[in-house]
Amino acid sequence: MALNRRRLGRMLLAALGLLALLAAHDAWQLQRERQLDARIAAGGQGGDAADAPAGLRFALAYAQAASGAGEAALARYGTLQEDPAFGRAARFNSANLLLRQAIELREAQHPGQALALIELAKEHYRELLRQDPGDWDARYNLERAQRLVPDPEGEDESMPDTRRDAERAATTMRGHSPGLP
Question: Do residues 142 and 126 touch, judged by C-beta distance below 8 A?
């Protein structure tokens, strides 16, 4: 009986120790997240270098895009495009931002500048679709960009093979006629 009480007491102490360890870990993570939230609210001042977590850089870019600082947001998104966790979202958001800027330029009577931004946005969408052909958001936005500036006809078609030694059509081949009626 005494052995069971000791064992029960040890198990209870071990469980309490584990709970205390988990509570300390949660408190540390909460403090870290509060610091990240404060950096986002401050607009990234205080060390927005490459050592900042990718999630923070993405959140800062998103906040800048929402506040109208498009060029700064594009620069931040550009640093994230190779990131495994945020790369696709950064490429998608930067393409959307480019497309929005292009639409604003077209409305402000600057279609030449808008053309370059639309083409760049279309290239971002195509890259997303090369990585994941089932990305319907990128497909839809690419279609919207195509409606603004369609691709030239025949751009994807290759030139026909006009070499002399190219294979001839079946109608010009010599051979035996099967005796058609």
Answer: yes
Torsion of CA 133, 137, 142, 148, to 10 degrees: 160
Q: How many DSSP H helices and E strands does the chain contain?
A: 6, 0
The DSSP letter of residue 172 is: G
Report yes or no on whether pTM surpasses 0.85: no
Contact 67, 40 (CB under 8 A): no
Cβ contact 94:77 at 8 Å: yes
Q: Measuring CA to CA, which residue among 51, 79, 52, 74 is closest to residue 64? A: 74
Contact assessment for residue 54 and residue 85, using Cβ atoms and an 8 Å cutoff? yes
Q: In angstroms, rounded to a whole number, what is the distance separating the alpha carbons of residues 124 and 17? A: 51
Residue 171: pLDDT band with limits 50, 70, 90? low
Cα maximum dimension of the chain: 108
**Residue whose structure tokens are 């509060």:** 34
| Cβ–Cβ < 8 Å for 118, 99 | yes
pLDDT in tens, 85-116: 899 999 999 999 999 999 998 888 777 888 88
pLDDT in the model for residue 48 = 47
Give me 150's structure tokens. Answer: 């369609």
What average pLDDT does this structure show over 2-22? Answer: 89
